[in-house]
Amino acid sequence: KSANPQWREQFDFHYFSDRKDMLDIEVWRKDNKKHEELLGTCHVDITALPTKQTNCLELPLEKHPGSLLMLIAVAPCTGVSISDLCVCPLGDPNERQQISQRYCIKNSFRDIKDIGFLQVKVLKAVDLMAADFSGKSDPFCVLELGNDMLQTHTVYKNLNPEWNKVFTFRIKDIHDVLEVTVFDEDGDKPPDFLGKVAIPLLSV
To answer: How far apart are CA 154 and CA 18, in angstroms?
Structure first.
């Protein structure tokens, strides 16, 4: 019930070679759990922004009244990666030792914001639900930690997909929950939900 909401949320987006450099933003209004209304959209050309500095932008909503105030910083991606099993970060003894030293007790207060390091190996799924008429699915896996999100590639026409990917995250809050969701790719339509698991970091 506000025409001037303040969210104060931080989102980290990780750009790789197959990503476009346009940030699309939508603002929605919720009346209740069932009814939602689009209040406006805006777009930011990331390639046009100066790097290694925080850019304060006031973005008018297209075809609707109002604007968004945002802080956007473009910087080299650190602490987050996607790799194959054979080259995972903790697989190298030297890198494992460096990470152990980085998070040892004597270095606890060197960088208060650097809570920890999480590595997730997404191997495979078994006996997924068939979402297509052919009796198969086109599954991919999405990992979310706080406001960070990474995903695997899609394995087509398979109910027992093997991804064999390694994901690394920087931990910002030890009370965060790692959410792993499996979807069925459905062309231009929204993906179908196939299942989800939530893992609190404190349980690891």
So the answer is: 14
